[in-house]
């Protein structure tokens, strides 16, 4: 995606409009003045190994016949990238899926071997249930998938009291048959939703490289990010210095950001990158 407005002034002296390209790293929203973007691309196929080591330095690409260093922006800031965070979420879902397979296996073992069943019977008290009740995401498609977990998850946990009562009343065969059907229905539905959730998380990752410029012509450096947001408009008066927010003392932010851009309701607050000092700060990492 080329940024056609790169060579045009984006500050209107009367309206003081500031147009920025925004992207997420974890739960933090960042911004780059669109005047400082030459292009946004997904092409990392021709990444060359870097001649030196620096935090976040991934390699070098040839852009407009210029060698341009590519940095992983999250690593530059020494924070977890969106890809790392979402990979952790995928692993968590793998573990919680296996928990419920093990839960059903443990219930069957208890029924057949007459041993105590010590797994959580309350769906809100298992590890997944505690996490699920608090989980939120800005990914609306993922949240829609997560809503489907509620019914089969509760139905699985309800099996323990129901089937153990049947066994205690001499109806073991009926209890085992209900469990067999629950494996084919409730548990399979839950496994399907775990799979859908993981797929949505993985598909939501879109690695892009932002080619940065200070003069609108020559590439300065390229930044790799994993989750773009949107182009947004602010006014110059929306820019607040870090010192006004008590963030100027944060070492990782020193010199990298001009300040926070925020609307009156703070619904779209973001840190604005200072590209004029970017190379100086990159070399210092």
SSE blueprint:
Layout: E1 17-25, E2 28-33, E3 37-41, E4 57-63, E5 66-72, H1 73-77, H2 82-113, H3 127-134, H4 140-147, H5 150-168, H6 172-203, E6 208-213, E7 219-225, E8 227-235, E9 239-240, E10 257-261, E11 270-273, H7 278-284
Parallel strand pairs: 2-11, 5-7
Antiparallel strand pairs: 1-2, 1-8, 3-6, 4-5, 6-7, 9-10, 10-11
- Anisotropy-based shape: elongated
State the order of secondary-structure elements, H for helix, E for strand.
EEEEEHHHHHHEEEEEEH
| Strand runs, count | 11
CATH level 1 class label of the largest domain = Mainly Beta
CATH topology (level 3) name of the largest domain? OB fold (Dihydrolipoamide Acetyltransferase, E2P)
Structural class, by secondary structure, is alpha+beta
Largest sheet: 6 strands, mixed
Share of residues in helices: 25-40%
Mean pLDDT: 87
- The tally of structural domains comes to 2
- What strand line-up does the widest sheet have? 8-1-2-11-10-9
Query: What percent of residues are in strands?
Result: 15-25%
CATH superfamily of the largest domain, called what? CheA-289, Domain 4
Runs in which pLDDT lies below 50 for 5 or more consecutive residues are 2-14
């Amino acid at each position: 995606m080329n940024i056609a407005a790169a060579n045009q002034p984006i500050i209107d002296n009367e309206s003081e409009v500031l147009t920025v390209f925004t992207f997420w790293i974890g739960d933090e929203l960042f911004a780059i003045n669109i005047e400082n973007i030459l292009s946004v691309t997904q092409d990392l196929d021709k990444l060359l190994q870097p001649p030196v080591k620096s935090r976040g330095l991934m390699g070098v690409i040839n852009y407009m016949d210029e060698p341009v260093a590519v940095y992983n922006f999250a690593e530059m800031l020494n924070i977890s990238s969106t890809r790392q965070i979402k990979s952790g979420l995928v692993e968590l879902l793998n573990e919680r899926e296996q928990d419920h397979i093990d839960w059903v296996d443990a219930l069957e073992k208890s029924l057949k071997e007459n041993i105590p069943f010590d797994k959580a019977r309350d769906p809100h008290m298992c590890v997944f249930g505690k996490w699920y009740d608090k989980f939120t995401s800005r990914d609306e498609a993922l949240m829609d998938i997560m809503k489907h977990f509620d019914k089969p998850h509760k139905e699985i946990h309800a099996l323990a009291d129901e089937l153990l009562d049947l066994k205690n009343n001499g109806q073991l065969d009926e209890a085992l048959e209900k469990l067999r059907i629950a494996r084919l229905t409730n548990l399979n539905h839950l496994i399907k939703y775990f799979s859908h959730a993981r797929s949505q998380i993985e598909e939501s990752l879109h690695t892009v490289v932002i080619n940065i410029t200070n003069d609108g012509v020559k590439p300065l450096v390229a930044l790799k990010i994993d989750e773009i947001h949107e182009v947004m408009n602010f006014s110059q008066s929306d820019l607040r210095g870090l010192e006004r927010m008590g963030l100027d003392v944060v070492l990782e932010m020193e010199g990298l950001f001009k300040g926070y851009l925020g609307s009156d309701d703070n619904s779209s607050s973001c840190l604005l990158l200072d590209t004029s000092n970017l190379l100086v700060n990159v070399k210092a990492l």
